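User: Here's a chain of 448 residues. Predict its fold as tokens.
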Amino acid sequence: MKNIKTTWAFLKDNKQVIYSIALMVVIPGILIFNTWVFSEHFKDVVNMSLQNKAINVGEAFNAGVADKIDSLEEVQLFVNNWKYFNEDTKSLDVLLFENGSFRKIASMNQSESVGEIDNNYSYFLSWNEDNPVAQKVFESGHTYWLVTMPLQNFQGENKAILSIKVSADMVSTKLAMALGDSFWILLLGVIFIVLLLLVNSNLFEYSILYNKIKEVDKMKDEFISMASHELRTPVTIIKGYIEMIIEESSKNGLDKSAKDYLTIINSSTKRLGDLIEDLLNVSRIEQGRLKIEMKDFKIIPIIDSTIKEINPQAKEKGLSLNFIYDDKVNDLISIDEDKLKQILINIIGNSIKYTEKGSIDVKISNKNNNLILAIKDTGIGMSAKARSRLFEKFYRVINDKTENIVGTGLGLWITKQIVEAMKGTISIDSIESVGTQVTIEFPLLKNK
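Assistant: Prediction complete.
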């Protein structure tokens, strides 16, 4: 019982195994069923053909004796000649209807049966219905079609009954051989399929490995989420106390080297805090816990306030950060305000980070009733190959110009997920040593 429960638990957790086993059963089963249905249909067609052949033989015999039907000697002579030219005919009797009974007047076994009374039910049925009666019979391991039909003269009058037995052995043998070959081919096909599935049985191992990887990946996400939450509080406290010390030092005076150390610690703490926030965002996105609260806002004030917030970073590097817009483009848009600010800070922050001189322009426009938000810089740019991987998780462009620029490679991946969660699209155009433009498009603009 324990082994059964263990097996069931394994199969329940590894549905690919059940799928593979089902294929091993279903595919051969379908092939076998299809072959069986085809063979039965083929047998029916062959039997119908043999039946028609037997009836045609009877009709051919009738045509040959139609002008001799009143002469018993000529009928018997025709029967004698018939057996030499029709090897498939195993027996042939001609019977007259007299006094409510049928008497043989001619037969291939003339010496034994001529003159006998034979009241077979099929004779009466064929005589009364005035139609051929065909039935399949088996005798001593052989198969025959027995046909009973009225014999008529040229005037269409029923004069006698013909009972003819035509062998179906040759066709039956050929049919059996054809079906036998088909089943052998089917068997080889089934064996091949089973072997193929068995050879690929490492799919079972892949299934188990995949489930283990999923489990480990889930544990990793849970650990990152837990660790990030636990780290966030002490890092926030450290950052807060350092800022307090720096602020107090500006009032009370502090040794320059000590102040420099605190500044470095504060910068590193900020970097650590940003990393923790990125990891938390990744965890929320991958676990489907990212909350998006869509509300109607005017877009210009949100972008303007964000630019003012981040402008000191641009000025520190001697860059010009410009907001270009038309007052007419101040429609309401359904958006999550905090998430939009996060997107802007991330993209504009990247532009500042990767631009040595020049400017960063943030421009909005209305195109086909959609908001187009473009952030264009005069930075170092990137190659087409690097651009194609830019939205991959943890991917960073590494070259001589970027090796000293810190980053996790998570920012753009997170940004893309947030943009798409708010029903938007994001794309990047870039030319090395010329600059980069990030274009974000949001639908669902509402008129003012």
